[in-house]
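Appendix C: a fully annotated inverse folding record. The material below is reproduced so that readers can follow the format used throughout the book. The structure is listed first as tokens, followed by the designed sequence.
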């Protein structure tokens, strides 16, 4: 039997997919932001009532169950990170371990390459005006996508984009269409919603668009942000307070819910949940963070060696007497007719375990680089790479960036269509949609001048020796050309193929003479 969501009060509705993934979204956002938010983040409590954090607590770091433990009060917001660092090894590790930034580094590196080249945009005059100011605060589409939408989309694998008219200023009376135009209330304002704030939804038959959804809205008050709830349908939006009391109903003429969820990738078992391609990087960031904390504690506690000496030389309070000038006297033993002295030994801690952790940290760092295509593998048996092999290694990075660029181009297309829907107060005209053209770069400068020069010389050397097997060599050289020059258009590749075919035919003819 199907469950009827209408039986639950609107503000209490939560989608099953939201319940399953909301903690994961928070963790991915914390991984992107890093810093104190990552250090202090709490993802529930464990079986002993202690908070679950990114830094995993060891068994020996739990308080003795025979000792009374007060309630966990957390850290005072804005206090120094070392305020909790006492004689507790766990809090010492948490305070002293720097937060790695693998996720933000990988995303920033990829986006900086994509937006290093100009994005081509063509659209109607109204759309061009909206691209110049997408959020009503003078933010251009370039800045909005590169600084806000793209990092969140890539980190989460999904993001909700919301489009609406701006609200009227307090005290302004809106009666006629002239009032709307005078106050600028006919504009389209774009914003984004974090997935934690999209609490419940119902999709259309194609599972591509919201027919109804519940959004948590944060309103700034003198006492801090206050959470309200807005229920969107195809004809209106209804605002409720946190107790479910109706505050206002705002009709609209858009003909659809003006919110669209855009994806980088999708989870196959869910209808409306994205898959972040940086989730593996976030996992390695947390593991690196924990292993780094182990080394910090190990180096701190084992920096000074222990002193081991005769038991009867110790005082009753466990101290060792030290004479003038910090001299440690040795105990004299005159038994047996000869005089000997009992010596002190320095006990050094074994470092094999710490060295293993350091090696594991280096492996994690290499895994992050490989998963993000930020490094190229070394040559065979450690030999230096030729210029051609470097270009081949970089082709994977170019393909990944090209896929990201296509995702961002698709996101902008959705944004343009929904912006026109709000500007028109209804579905956009067909001619306006056909005018939209958004082209992101498909090839990226990932090579140094030395790499390109060296690879070009090797490629020319290979081509100069070709001609004995025109067909076979032509296929091989064409394939090599595509690997060396990723991201070209089909017409450009066709021109290159024709040039290679013509060259090999001429070269074979010369050899046959």
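Designed amino acids, in order:
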């Amino acid at each position: 039997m199907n469950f009827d969501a209408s039986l639950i009060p609107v503000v209490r509705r939560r989608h099953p997919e939201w319940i399953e993934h909301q903690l994961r979204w928070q963790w991915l956002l914390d991984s992107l932001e890093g810093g104190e938010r990552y250090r202090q983040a709490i993802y529930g409590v464990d079986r002993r009532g202690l908070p679950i954090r990114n830094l995993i607590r060891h068994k020996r770091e739990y308080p003795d169950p025979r000792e009374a433990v007060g309630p966990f009060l957390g850290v005072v917001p804005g206090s120094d990170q070392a305020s909790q660092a006492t004689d507790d090894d766990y809090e010492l590790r948490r305070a002293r371990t720097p937060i790695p930034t693998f996720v933000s580094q990988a995303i920033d590196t990829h986006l900086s390459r994509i937006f290093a080249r100009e994005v081509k945009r063509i659209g109607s005059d109204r759309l061009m005006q909206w691209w110049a100011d997408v959020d009503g605060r003078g933010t251009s589409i370039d800045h909005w996508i590169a600084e806000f939408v793209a990092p969140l989309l890539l980190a989460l694998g999904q993001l909700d984009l919301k489009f609406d008219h701006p609200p009227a200023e307090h005290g302004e009376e809106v009666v006629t269409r002239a009032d709307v135009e005078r106050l600028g209330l006919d504009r389209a304002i774009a914003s984004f919603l974090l997935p934690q704030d999209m609490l419940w939804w119902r999709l259309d038959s194609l599972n591509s668009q919201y027919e109804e959804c519940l959004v948590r809205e944060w309103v700034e008050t003198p006492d801090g942000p206050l959470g309200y709830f807005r229920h969107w349908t195809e004809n209106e939006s209804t605002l409720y307070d946190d107790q479910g009391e109706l505050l206002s109903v705002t009709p609209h003429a858009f003909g659809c819910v003006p919110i669209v969820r855009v994806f980088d990738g999708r989870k196959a078992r869910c209808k409306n949940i994205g898959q972040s391609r940086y989730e593996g990087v976030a996992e390695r960031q947390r593991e690196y963070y924990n292993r780094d904390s182990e080394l910090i504690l190990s180096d701190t506690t084992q920096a000074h060696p222990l002193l081991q000496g005769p038991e009867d030389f110790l005082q009753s309070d466990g101290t060792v007497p030290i004479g003038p000038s910090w001299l440690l006297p040795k105990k004299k033993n005159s038994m047996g007719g000869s005089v000997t002295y009992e010596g002190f030994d320095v006990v050094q801690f074994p470092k094999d375990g710490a060295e293993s952790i350091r090696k594991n940290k280096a492996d994690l760092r290499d895994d992050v680089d490989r998963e993000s295509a930020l490094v190229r593998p070394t040559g065979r048996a450690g030999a230096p790479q030729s210029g051609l092999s470097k270009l081949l290694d970089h082709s994977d990075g170019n393909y990944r960036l090209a896929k990201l660029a296509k995702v961002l181009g698709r996101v902008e297309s959705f944004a343009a269509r929904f912006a026109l829907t709000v500007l028109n107060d209804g579905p956009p005209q067909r001619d306006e949609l056909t005018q939209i053209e958004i082209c992101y770069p498909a090839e990226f400068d990932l090579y140094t001048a030395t790499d390109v020069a060296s690879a070009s010389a090797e490629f020319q050397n290979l081509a100069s020796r070709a001609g004995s097997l025109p067909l076979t060599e032509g296929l091989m050289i064409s394939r090599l050309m595509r690997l060396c020059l990723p991201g070209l258009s089909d017409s450009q590749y066709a021109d290159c193929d024709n040039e290679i075919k013509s060259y090999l035919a001429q070269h074979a003819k010369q050899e046959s003479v």
